[in-house]
Amino acid sequence: RLANGADPLFLWDRQNGMQDLGPVVDDLVQINDAGQIVGTMRDPNDRNRAFLWDSKSGRCILPTLGGDHAKPWAINNLGQVVGNADPAAGARRAFVWDANEGIRDLMPRSTNPTRAFSINNAGQVIVFALDGSWLIGTREGKAFTSQRPPLGSAHQINNFGAVVGLSQRGKGKVDVEVWHPDSGVEQIGQLKGSFPGMPLIRAC
């Protein structure tokens, strides 16, 4: 926190110490192994926009899908960014972006709101829609496979292809589960509470 009360984003390392990376909208910020950082900022027109920061170019505002706003949720080690963005008309859409292919709608046939929560280094993406969660494989910026993880809501995928999420199994009980297509579903814990309002679960 600065003397004026602002809370800018910072990056710290042993060589450079703490660097001020400027203001952000919220604390949903991700960094990959290359030191690329994604977050949300307000542009001069007071619109929430996704940005990518690296040490060479500084901040780069990412495009939307034709609308005003975009929010990044994750970045992998290949520099692929996923999140949700506004189209020119209609509900917010899950997107994937990279420097070569630009921004793409991950579920263009869906008319409902969608959000992309997580992407691993193989380009597999967790997308949340009104009809549940989807695991979508991407190639050259396009979705080429999709399947439904057998979880109530899938939240994140790691580089081994394991998906972590939550399932409501009884009143006031929510199971924390891990699913992999080769080994099925494993319960690893339980939370007290109910949907909605349960937290996002993160995996390493």
What topology does this entry show?
Elements: E1 9-13, E2 17-22, E3 30-31, E4 37-42, E5 48-54, E6 58-61, E7 66-75, E8 81-87, E9 93-98, E10 102-105, E11 114-119, E12 124-129, E13 132-139, E14 142-147, E15 153-157, E16 163-170, E17 173-180, E18 184-192
Antiparallel strand pairs: 1-2, 3-4, 4-5, 5-6, 7-8, 8-9, 9-10, 11-12, 12-13, 13-14, 15-16, 16-17, 17-18
Provide key terms for this protein.
204 residues; mainly beta; four-stranded antiparallel sheet
Q: Would you mind describing this structure in some detail?
A:
It is a single chain. By secondary structure, the chain is mainly beta. It has no helices and 18 strands. The protein has a four-stranded antiparallel beta sheet with strand order 3-4-5-6, with no helix packed on it. Strands 7-8-9-10 form a four-stranded antiparallel beta sheet, with no helix packed on it. It has a four-stranded antiparallel beta sheet with strand order 11-12-13-14, with no helix packed on it. The relative contact order is 0.09.
How large, in whole angstroms, is the Cα Rg?
A: 18 Å
Describe the global form. globular
| Low confidence ranges | none
Helical fraction equals under 10%
The number of distinct β-strands equals 18
